[in-house]
Amino acid sequence: ARASALGRRGEVGALISGGMRTVCRLTVPGMTVMVVFGGSLGQLLYGREDVGEYILPLAVAMGVGCCVSVLATALNSIGRQRTVAAVSLVGGVVRLGCTVALTMLPGVGMGGYVAGTLVGSALELLLCLLAAGKYGGLKWEPTKWLLTPVLGAALGGLNASLLFRVMRNSGVAEIWTILLSLSFGGGLYALVQWLLGKDEQNNQNNS
Question: Which helix (H) or strand (E) holds 198?
């Protein structure tokens, strides 16, 4: 808000980009945790085999929603409240329309709600990115936002999933399997973030 009031458009865009980078570092591992452990944890809590049926698309929708929240907050801070309200309204209408239309189709059921959530969230993200670029000077940098979190989450998630399967097949209690695998994967993710962040800092110092 202060940078916007002073007319520092470049600084506003850099701050928004930094916010996107931070939220991606938090949500990408969160999505990975949902995908790897969500189904098993849900079955453990609710005793139903179909708990994790839509876990992947719902995890994506969660991550997209977090990015939308960051962009909406940034737009609100630079005085674009009407833009944020319009985006929310359009996304909500599209989400509701897709949900109603798809759930009425034979054999779709709950999948219609999931699809509507994905479509509405994706539309809101696109509109917020366009608005942030137009009014806040945000430059789209998906590689900068996603590369490090995705690499870390892929390494941590794959290893955690492997450990989870090995421990579960060995007869270890489900709760301990989840906790130990989650801790192991989280440690690997943190290590990757530290190593890549250190390398990036060294490159900046050299330049």
Answer: helix 174-206
Kindly indicate the confidence band of residue 56, based on its pLDDT and cuts at 50, 70 and 90. confident
The answer to whether the CB of 114 falls within 8 A of the CB of 52 is no
Considering only CA atoms, give the Rg of the chain: 20
Gap between the Cα atoms of 71 and 145, Å rounded: 13
* Residues 6 or more apart in contact with residue 67 via CB below 8 angstroms: 20, 23, 24, 27, 125, 128
DSSP-assigned states of every residue in 18-45: HHHHHHHHHHHHHHHHHHHHHHHHHHHH
Eight-state DSSP code of residue 48: -
- CA dist 32 and 34 (Å) reads 5
DSSP state string for 88-120:
HHHHHHHHHHHHHHHHTSTTTTHHHHHHHHHHH
Alpha-carbon distance 155 to 184, whole Å?
11
Instruction: Say what the alpha-carbon torsion angle 53, 59, 62, 64 is, to the nearest 10 degrees.
Output: -120
Identify residue 180 by its one-letter amino acid code: L
**Structure confidence at residue 105 as a pLDDT band (50, 70, 90):** confident
* Region for residue 171 given its phi and psi (left: phi exceeds 0; alpha: psi -120 to 50; beta: otherwise): left
The closest of 82, 34, 73 to 56, measured between CA atoms, is: 34
pTM: predicted TM-score of the whole model, two decimal places: 0.80
What are the angstrom distances between the C-alpha of 151 and each of 68, 187, 191? 22, 14, 11
